[in-house]
Amino acid sequence: MNPALLTAFVVVVLVSAAAGSAGAHESALPRSTPEAQGVSSSAMLAFVEAADRQIEGLHSLMILRHGHVITEGWWAPFEPKSNHELYSLSKSFASTAVGMAVAEGRLSVDDPVLQFFPEEAPAEPSANLKAMRVRDLLGMVAGHQDETSSAADKISSKAFLAHPVPHKPGTHFKYNTPATFMLSAIVQKQTGLTLLDYLRPRLFEPLGIENPVWNTNWQGISLGGYGLRARTEDIAKFGLLYLRKGDWGGKQLLPESWVEAATGRQVSNGSNPKSDWEQGYGYQFWRCRHGAYRGDGAFGQYCIVLPEQGVVVAITSGLKDMQAVLDLVWNQLLPAVHPRRLSPDHANRKKLSEKLGSLTLSFQEGSRTSPVAAKVSGRQFIFPSNSEKLESVSLSIHEGGGGATLISRSNGVESRILCGYREWKKGRAPFGSYSDEPVAACGAWVADDTYALKVCAFETPYTATLRFRFAGDQVFRDSETNVGFGATKRAQLVGQAN
User: Fold this and answer.
1) What is d(CA 284, CA 276) in angstroms, rounded to the nearest whole number?
2) Which stretches of the chain drop beneath a pLDDT of 70?
3) Facing residues of 477 across strands?
4) Structural domain includes residue 35
């Protein structure tokens, strides 16, 4: 195996249930061999190889059968202990909070939305707004034609209630993140707790979800439709809770009736038999082909549950084609599931373990050093005023090549990013709109005059590629991210030597 890959921090567990429990945290899911749970290691190997080969941007994978982890892996620099931003997969957790609040008698799905916010209602609410119920928020049929802003500094119940409702609630499917925010606001109104604090003793602690983070809006209300960060295994546990109809270790955390309603087809959202976005929608869960259902989030965050097969798939990613991942699950994983345990296959288990142990995001390709490296090392370049508020950069080349430190100042704040060569070096730095993020970076010379580095914010879906072309007393900086809600390329910036 490539020694450079061995240095990447990747944890893989593919051992027997007894061995897997040794030394594991008491809240961890039990581990098992694939064969003991009716899935062949050769099929799992084919699945992982296809995922690694065909889909650029996978970050983690965990597959459960009968409540046991049978395959798990992280693409370095991603790691088991780190949270990952879930985006709209947060919605399924928000729905769970509503289900628990309903079970406690704090609200009903048939309650009118307006009754919770009399002080924020329009002076003359429309008939459609008056008719909007909690169940309409849950099913994404609130009656809107478009969304209000979901930005944390703008989203609020007042803004939502002021928005036109041209359709009769319950009749028009419109995926609507502010509708999920309203569910969060309702739970907070009725309990006095944010979603994070409300779910902590009811869901997170029973499942052993130890360090969840859920961002709030400017009023201190959990965003609901996004903003939750959790680990890959936390996603898998959440899916297992739903697979088990709300039961966890003999305790009914969530009513079975709520699980059935939330994951069932509540509304129609299309008719394309080949699209997993047109199989119906429940209460903040998508129906899928093959009798499955899922929660998912932007750029490839998945919690997929296959009730008939007793399978849960948890995946985090930073990718553009979300259907491709689901197609891989249906085409590669689904046929591999058997009703009974299989004979041990030690040879393919070893191959699978080795494959999982070598997973990594692609490194920045290029040369270890360059003829101009010594000339540009340590030189500071100043940038004129720009939208990114980037003030200066300098590149410190490590002795002997094979790495560098990027020192930059943006909006008055200096940051340092350590870059490895064909390995990920970890640290912390501002990243995009994040003021302080865990990051990992690697770099290489892509031409004699150009150093490129990849910076991965490994608790998010995002990886940025920065290119610095040195020409005399100038540097030309280009920047692009792997995914984004808008343009992923930024305008070129030109800096002048200080």
Assistant:
1) 14
2) 1-26
3) 468, 493
4) no
